[in-house]
């Protein structure tokens, strides 16, 4: 229907980011998934009365209207065909008529009384049709003024039921709308409330092929189908469709609604203003869906989202309720979250030996099913060839030695998990027969998002099992075959105690940003991947803590008293052993006294042999006649065979440099002076600080944690390589004998003791 040449670029006036995409689609079937909504060409946006009007129902919500007009303009200027179905004429007219009545009453009263003081005036009940007649022109003038700011022309169309049921009128309406769209004009459609009959029951909405125009929900649905629209966006004052009336204790937002699901929904009362309630919206939406138009019902009044709700929907983000005719083959991510929660709670109630048994069984499966795993991994590598950079391909690759190392790490986790959940950390006697305990418990449900590395899946799964946490896993599509078989093996191991659903692999088209909004289901997000992925997740997570680091800018300071024999080995291992790792060396700080010494020459020669590209820091460059390329930023994570070298005058200057340009990940000092080393270790504020050791030791397996879910540079809860201990929190258990607080008051019979009691010794075998 649309040629690519017809697509125009987004205008520079908009501050709403949106990528222009070719829009070409044959109308007939609605979109099956949210991710397809970005291909919508023709869109109807229905603005409910609660969206357009103020809270006092008298006058318009100008701020909301302005943001909606901007979003519609953005989409229109991308080459889409936008139509508005708007309420608001009655509210606008009500405001105008009230003002006129008050003005006329005050004038009459002043003339009759001859006094300046006015008596309290009663405003008569205003008839809706009269309000609509008074408000329609003003509402349209307001829309015209707003759209003019974005160089867009708007046109008003008032309709009644007859315009759709009379064939000639219907053809006229259709022709007018098509002509307006052809001329790049936004039609603004409303029922002609000045002449419509009073509202009737919605009985005809029960029909399959009949829908009457008696409110703007039915008008929008009828218009959408008549105009073969790709998408209908219905904005109301609630987040979407709930399974129970919004605000009730058990109400849950329905992400995707399918025809036939009406029986599972209990509808509440209608909106504070307007003709239709949620039941009318659902019936109208299903009618439009049957006609081939996709529908989303969302909140257009919330101040935090109304400024981008329309563009978010078109981008495919999880906003409101999406109506779809295609049910997914597997569970939704919300159902997976509930299964992970339930399974995690069952995991936590198992005996430590039972959790260890599951992990041992998974370790055995990794070696027993090695051929099947490597075959699946081979498919991933073949599909990724030419699409992924060499470092990412290396991360994606599995081997027999990697699987063997994984199995060893899992057995370490199993051994260390014996005394993890339920361990007593503190005991206090509050008073006689009143004892308090602080014990370790699982965090709840973890969401781990990882790129490229399929070996991450069994590691993280084992740690979740050992700590009794439910787990949602979202892997990159480049490792889909490997992730699928590793997840099946994980569920097979869990099945020996009947809790296979505790670990879930998200295979739906769920975007990472949407997963980060599931704050009612997820307790902690752990990203494993590039610094860009981590930053995106930290930005997207709303109300869910994120454990991780956005950058791994690791430093090594070579002191003036460093050993010649140690330096080159440590630099080579830290930089060259695995340059793509987050714990690889990125900046080498060298004491000024070492310049032009044999030690310095050895370092440079070794880096040249290893083909490491050197970037000179500002001070280092000033010492050289012909220097390497000067570094663009001292805060750079290269993730490749590149290294920044900078010169410092002292250990204190090295520490100051690390604090200014580092990422609090891993930093190292190389020196034979113990006093200098201890000063460095105590004063560098990073998650891992080493003396005469490679940065690459910053790893859960190398620390003896068995494995890690990631490395955290956070200062709250867990820091550094996060193993089993970092996936636990605590709760308080108080055991009493009919104790009440009033007994401890000034005139009470009891006194607080607050005695520390011995804690059971931890099993360290």
TrEMBL record:
Major subcellular location class: mitochondrion
Record InterPro entries: AceGlu_kinase-like_sf (IPR036393), Ald_DH/histidinol_DH (IPR016161), Ald_DH_C (IPR016163), Ald_DH_N (IPR016162), Aldehyde_DH_dom (IPR015590), Asp/Glu/Uridylate_kinase (IPR001048), G-glutamylP_reductase_CS (IPR020593), G5K_ProBA (IPR041744)
Annotated GO MF terms: ATP binding; glutamate 5-kinase activity; glutamate-5-semialdehyde dehydrogenase activity; identical protein binding
Coiled coil (residue ranges): none
Pathway: Amino-acid biosynthesis; L-proline biosynthesis; L-glutamate 5-semialdehyde from L-glutamate: step 1/2; Amino-acid biosynthesis; L-proline biosynthesis; L-glutamate 5-semialdehyde from L-glutamate: step 2/2
EC number: 2.7.2.11, 1.2.1.41
Catalytic activity: L-glutamate + ATP = L-glutamyl 5-phosphate + ADP; L-glutamate 5-semialdehyde + phosphate + NADP(+) = L-glutamyl 5-phosphate + NADPH + H(+)
Cell location: Mitochondrion matrix
Domain Aldehyde dehydrogenase, chain residue ranges per copy: 333-595
Keyword Plastid (UniProt): no
GO terms of biological process kind: citrulline biosynthetic process; glutamate metabolic process; L-proline biosynthetic process; ornithine biosynthetic process
Top-rank taxon, per record: Eukaryota
Sequence ranges assigned to domain Aspartate/glutamate/uridylate kinase in this UniProt record: 41-299
Keyword Transcription regulation listed: no
Alphabetized SUPFAM superfamilies for the sequence: ALDH-like (SSF53720), Carbamate kinase-like (SSF53633)
Subunit text: Can form homodimers/multimers.
Function of the protein: Bifunctional enzyme that converts glutamate to glutamate 5-semialdehyde, an intermediate in the biosynthesis of proline, ornithine and arginine.
Protein name: Delta-1-pyrroline-5-carboxylate synthase
Organism of this sequence: Monodon monoceros
Highest classification ranks of the organism: Eukaryota, Metazoa, Chordata, Craniata, Vertebrata
